[in-house]
Design brief:
heterodimer, A: alpha/beta, Transcription Regulator spoIIAA, 5-stranded mixed sheet, 30% strand, globular, B: alpha/beta, Rossmann fold, Heat Shock Protein 90, 6-stranded antiparallel sheet, 5-stranded parallel sheet, 10 helices, 38% helix, 22% strand, disordered N terminus
Chain lengths: 119, 292
């Protein structure tokens, strides 16, 4: 399959912002993102913000990955929060009732502030 | 830091009588690390194909002297045939269906942003083995497309692209919803019914009526019992959208289980046969062809 998911990482204090672009779909971007988050968690970096602005496609497997990592990071005392979620992705989160599970932010400084970090 | 893995160093043949477009695409693909040759018409393209093995042929349909569809057919009949991507400004369903019947890998409508073609090429190269798999066309009418395809995940992109081109006249939000539902059902059929085994086949029918879009997907699996889908999100109580995740972990399943819940929200009807290895999904249209 395509591996068209592209990730840029920025570390701000103990928060890691991952800017995603491309497709977050079954056996595609989901593998790239899973491995990336696993590596961060192994380093002990468990406060994550996923910037979804340039995620062009999201499917149920991509959503499943977000949920799976949300739970595993939470068990380590951290959190995954979503930033700049497009209308399309937001609709899918709503359909699956996950918009009540994830904290979703429109501004990066608000997302960072929710972790107690100044932008 | 960044992650991405485009395939480079492949041989690509560009066939288009538009010198400007050839130049633009050739420059982009060369910059991406590919070896690119160009041809301005069909005979020249076929001569080049016979003289050397190309990984990908990118061909315009509206060529002088020989149609791009004929180039497609002849190129695919060669020993070690290349993957052929068709470009065209002719957006009729009939042309698309002829391209499907002749084993085009993908059908790209002109004009397109150059990055779009790069993405299609990257996709074809990344899944090179699957890109060469054939689709058996049972019916190629715009009102009734029916195909039989190998159970390979790469097929999902390819089939979704063809099927959604047939619905190109619909409003974009509606197309997006239908495309998402179709892809969820198809990947489900390929992954669970077909066990990702290309020797097994999935049968897909797409029917376009005046007031309805209907997709039927039959997989080669044994089906499932809806009452036992405790590992799927549809079994969750309304106030606990994560309940099924623990069950999936206990069963060794990857995180997920949201496909059926999503699909039910995206279309108007979702009907399974008794064994639940065939599904029909329906989206109703209003008189203007919009969402009913």
């Amino acid at each position: 399959m395509n591996t068209l998911m592209h990730i840029d990482e920025q570390r701000i204090a103990d928060v890691t912002v991952l800017r995603l672009s491309g497709r977050l779909e079954l056996y595609d971007g989901d593998v790239v993102l899973r491995d990336w988050i696993d590596r961060l968690v192994d380093e002990g970096r468990v406060n994550l913000v996923l910037d979804m602005q340039h995620v062009i496609r999201l499917d149920s497997a991509g959503i499943g990955l977000l949920v799976g990592k949300f739970l595993s990071v939470r068990r380590r005392g951290g959190a995954i929060k979503l930033l700049h979620v497009t209308q399309r992705c937001r609709r899918l989160l709503h359909m699956t009732r996950l918009d009540s599970v994830f904290e979703i932010f429109d501004h990066e400084d608000q997302a960072l502030h929710s972790f107690g970090v100044a932008a | 830091m960044a992650a991405s893995a485009p395939v480079t160093g492949r041989r690509i043949l560009l066939v288009d009588d538009d010198r400007g477009l050839r130049h633009v695409l050739s420059t982009m693909l060369t910059s991406a690390g590919h070896a690119v040759q160009s041809a301005a018409d069909g005979p020249e393209a076929l001569a080049l194909c016979r003289g050397g093995a190309f990984d990908i042929v990118l061909v315009d349909i509206g060529l002088p002297s020989m149609s791009g569809l004929e180039v497609l057919e002849r190129a695919r009949a060669l020993p070690n045939p290349p993957v052929v991507i068709v470009m065209t400004a002719d957006d009729t369903s009939e042309t698309l269906l002829q391209a499907v019947r002749r084993q085009a890998y993908r059908y790209v409508r002109k004009p397109f942003p150059p990055n779009a073609i790069i993405e299609v090429i990257d996709g074809a190269l990344a899944g090179a083995r699957a890109a060469s798999l054939s689709i058996e066309v049972v019916s190629a009418r715009p009102e009734w497309l029916e195909v039989i395809a190998p159970c390979s995940l790469e097929m999902a992109d390819r089939l979704q692209s063809f099927v959604m081109q047939l619905a190109a006249d619909l409003p974009e939000p509606l197309r997006e919803r239908v495309a998402q539902a179709f892809r969820e059902l198809l990947t489900n059929a390929i992954e669970w019914g077909g066990k990702l085994d290309p020797s097994r086949k999935v049968r897909i029918s797409c029917v376009r009526a005046k007031r309805m879009l209907l997709y039927r997907i039959a997989d080669p699996g044994e089906g499932f019992d809806l009452d036992r889908l405790r590992h799927a999100a549809i079994s969750n109580p309304v106030d606990d959208p994560l309940r099924h995740i623990d069950i999936r972990e206990e069963s060794g399943l990857r995180p997920g289980g949201y496909g059926l819940a999503m699909t039910r929200s995206l279309v108007d009807e979702l009907i399974y046969n008794e064994a639940r290895n065939e599904v029909i999904c329906i989206k109703y249209l209003d008189q203007q062809g919009g969402e009913s």
